[in-house]
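Amino Acid Chain and Its Fold in Token Form
===========================================
Purpose: to set a sequence beside its fold so the mapping can be learned.
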Amino acid sequence: MKFYTLSDNVDTLMGMRLAGIEGEVIHTADEVLASLRRVMADPSIGIVLMTEKLINTCPNIIYRYKLTQKRPLIVEVPDRHGEGDVSQTIEKYVSEAIGIKL
């Protein structure tokens, strides 16, 4: 299974490519949804790395994918432009998944 990166900036994508991970740069919610549909249909992709900014373009849809799809695993990666706290994002995701505020 492969990793795949969906990034909102070239810097993050270049860093991932240096690690041998392919991907693409996208910016709008429509591009995010189209790319996710394509990636979800590819059986060779096991993990999708997405930047914080892209996840924030359509968080409800992405969290629905995370909660209902077995494959691929969608992982939020911080980038140099990110402002959020990844631990808060994980806390929110777990709280939504199990229905208990941590």
